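Changelog-adjacent note: as of this version, every example in the card shows the full chain rather than a window. The one below runs 505 residues end to end.
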Amino acid sequence: IALLVMTIACINFVTMAIGRSANRSKEVGVRKVLGAFRTQLMGQFWGEAFLLATVAMGLGIVLAELFLPTFCDLIGKQLVLSLTDLGLVSGLAGLLLLVTVAAGSYPAVVLSRFEPVEVLKGRFRVGGKNFFTKALVVLQFGLSIFLICAALILTNQIQFMVSSNLGFRPEQVAILPTFSNGEKAEIIAERFRSRVAENPDILSVSATSGAFTHGFDVNSFHYNGEVKTAFVYRIDAKYLETLQIPLVEGRNLDEGSADDRDHAMIVNEAFLRALGLPVSAADKPIPGLEGGVVDKMNIVGVVKDFHFRSLREEIGPAIMFMKKDWPLDDILIRVAPAKIPATVEYLRHVWKELSPNTPFQLTFMDEDFQRLYEGEMKWSRIVSYSTLFAVLLASLGLFGLATLAVTNRTKEIGIRKVLGATGGGMIRLVSTEFLQLVLIANLLAWPAAYFAASKFLENYAYHIQLTPWLFLLAGAGAVVIAFLTIVGQIVRAARANPVEALRYE
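Full-length structure tokens:
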């Protein structure tokens, strides 16, 4: 991203140097007449580029130091900018040299080859129809549009993941780790459930071996001689009610049934798909199912598939049972939405009363799921800020080119106004050329952005669809920004008194 932004800045330098070449052609011609060699002129122009890059690097280091705390908060890491670090200083020196060569080479080569006779006769033109300059503008806005597309797609993917239906309701479900094992965890969970049942703001309480984002277990078993794996969760009879996971076939587990405690399990639809079984297989013997946690177990219920992991991963087979030889690591509490802060304090008080030596580390399940996407959220902010910088730089370059274009066409604008041209006509005349370049940049940036976005979204089992509207929105934004950048200069020239325009020189 930094390279993209720096490339745009270098393009600005090149395009502005080429734009100013008409004003410097006579200077070069006079210098050559007075005996300057081409190598001396190239050294001069490279020296100017080096001086500007050096000043810019000094300013950049100051800005980096000022914004480093903010950036560290953004990425969640602690970085230090130390100018005593030999590696950093060497890198900055190399960067300075790279920028000087990249930004200064073309102006140095082009401006130094001016022929004195042609220049002083006023016959010299740079680049014919300035194809190179136009190509640089297209590249500049193409990179900016690429970043705009990236920011939009990343933001939409994050919104999709955060707002997707998980197949259950994690809202208002608190997770309280027991920090205990075996019988102690059983006793704590049962006492806690009994104690909070008297509070009307506690809607349901359940205990489980893993609260999704707090960890999980994977168990292997055999089906018809093939090794299969599934995510396994010890639950209780209140589990489906607490998380509001719907049953599609069969029934819930019954804690009063000794057979259910030892031999019954609930599975998700993905489990049956992995075994090639229909949903109607619930509550029927399944031949060939043996080993692992499923040994001597019967499926009594089937729940709809739900996301117990990040949306990066596809929903896998899951098994839920009540076997007491599995631990109870977390207590799940569904609370009423009206008095959540007061209810949390109540739960803290009850926990300290029942287990004073165990930490109270309550979190909410929906917030835990959102924290799964912290990396994407950080990237979204970084890309958004970088896009803002890139678009600002591209707009500055376009503003400079528009200013030069209007200045060079001052007499033409004056003559057109004298002959009856309107202000709107003048705006269309001058802006069309620049807006055409931005449209070409769109056509080049869209395929690259689509390819990059497709590769990025392959990392997610569940993701947004890449619709044309995302790319059209990015392109339209770039066109609007480009027009707003140049329209002020054009309007000012169009509104000027034609007499002043014709007396321009």
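Structural remarks: Confidence is low (pLDDT under 50) at residues 123-128.
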